[in-house]
Amino acid sequence: MPPVKYAVVTFGCRVNQSDSLGFEEQFLAAGAEPAPAEAADVVVVNTCSVTATADQGGRQTIRRIARLNPAARIVVTGCYATREPAEVAALPNVARVVCNDDKPQVLSFVRALAGEDARFGALTTAERFGDGDGGCGATIEPGVAGRTAFTLRVQTGCAEPCTYCIIPETRGAPRSVPIEQVLAEVSRIVAAGFREVALTGVHLGSYGRDLPSPATLPDLLTALRDAYGNVHGGEPPRVIFRVSSLEPMDCSDRVVELVRDSNCFAPHFHLPLQHVSPRMLAAMRRPYDVAYYGRLVERIRRDIPAASIGSDLIVGFPGESDDDFEQLVRYLETSPLTHLHVFPYSDRPGTAASRMADRPAGIVVKERGRQLREIGARLTRRFLESQRGTVHLALTLEDGTLAVTGNYLKVRIPPGHHRNEWVRVQLTETSPTVCGTVID
């Protein structure tokens, strides 16, 4: 009897990416085989709902899969499925809607849908003995789902009151994974062959506050450093940790120092700014000002000169005036940021911002977004040029001719390496493509 064929389609943030890797592991452990969505028996669509465009993308994908693969059972989960379950359930071929809290039971739901299908019957050897010695417990390895790095969720949920965001409603209150469990999971991931782990959470900077014995994000990073960092003799570490998006108020001096002083942390920061105008930050309920943010990123640039520093920006928020926008432009033009993600404001029903008036016209928002993206492109070019001639530890991707550096530059290198190898790369070209040579 042929095995069940499955596909996982993922939208949105790294938290969703981590959840989807969990689905992959469940299916592989059950003996299922990956397949394109157009040929799969079961398709899990992990949706996002941070913007109206994200909702639309999920709907379009579900309809396309149903059209191309009418026999597929489609299981939909994620934030859009949690926020609008009835709307999602009405889409073609949707057999089950799974809220975020029930994601760990996705395979059980699939088996229930399968009914008498023997391919979903008894536990496989990997499921029976996955906790024991030997290879049957290694259900996922670098390259599965096209991922060389492993995205590990250590926290979920958010209690921040940002007026534009629906995510606290779809992800619930903050919940953290205890440090001991994180260390055990990292040990399993490293044993499976992964050499980069991205640490992620819905509000990662709040890590540990909810635990019975409260902890902090620096406590977690310190434990990871003690277990995997500071290799002597110039050898690369067993694994590098990339810290995902942090709210500016959560990127403490201790976090910066750990990244600066430990060879197991990638020099890569993503610090959402959203705006600089005091009026806009207050309207968004963002708990910092541009002076604080400026000091933070200047300190990172001073202490870790090669660090990449990315940011998110919202353009066209209700009440944004020409003067508000000009304040944002003036700051960005001279900032040490290296890349920008620019989002036009997206109304999310149920949020405080959805009740705000005085919204900029669509044509104004589009033009403002264009200007910010141009600034972002200039900042990126400036950073790339500053990196010409520098040498970095990098991890090979794809067929081994692409490598990603700790400061998140994707570099084309000559053939001769496999996926998931450490290489030392010197950047030789930064335009139009970032290229480098491998240094032995």
What would you say this structure looks like, in words?
- By secondary structure, this protein is an alpha/beta fold.
- It has 14 helices and 17 strands.
- It has helices at residues 14-29, 52-68, 79-83, 85-89, 106-114, 125-129, 167-171, 179-191, 217-228, 253-261, 278-284, 290-303, 322-333, 362-386; strands spanning 5-10, 33-34, 42-47, 73-78, 94-97, 150-156, 175-176, 196-201, 240-243, 268-270, 308-315, 339-344, 391-397, 402-405, 410-412, 422-429, 435-439.
- It has a five-stranded parallel β-sheet with strand order 2-1-3-4-5, with helices on both faces. The protein has a five-stranded antiparallel β-sheet with strand order 15-14-13-16-17, with no helix packed on it. It has a four-stranded mixed β-sheet with strand order 7-6-8-9.
- Strand 13 and strand 14 form a beta hairpin.
- Helix 13 (322-333) runs parallel beside helix 14.
- The longest helix has 25 residues, at 362-386.
- Residues 121-138 have low confidence and may be disordered.
The whole-angstrom Rg is 22 Å
Distance between the termini: 49 Å
The low-pLDDT segments are 121-138
Number-wise, the strands total 17
Proper CATH architecture of the largest domain: 3-Layer(aba) Sandwich
Oligomerization category of the chains in this entry: single chain
Shape designation: globular
User: What spatial order of strands do you see in the largest sheet?
Assistant: 2-1-3-4-5
Structural class: alpha/beta
CATH topology of the largest domain, which one?
Rossmann fold
Please identify which CATH superfamily of the largest domain we are dealing with. Methylthiotransferase, N-terminal domain
The count of domains is 4
Q: pLDDT average, as an integer? A: 92
* Residues in helix, %: 25-40%
Helix tally equals: 14
Q: Which strand-content bin applies to the residues? A: 15-25%
Please write the CATH class name of the largest domain. Alpha Beta
Main β sheet profile: 5 strands, parallel
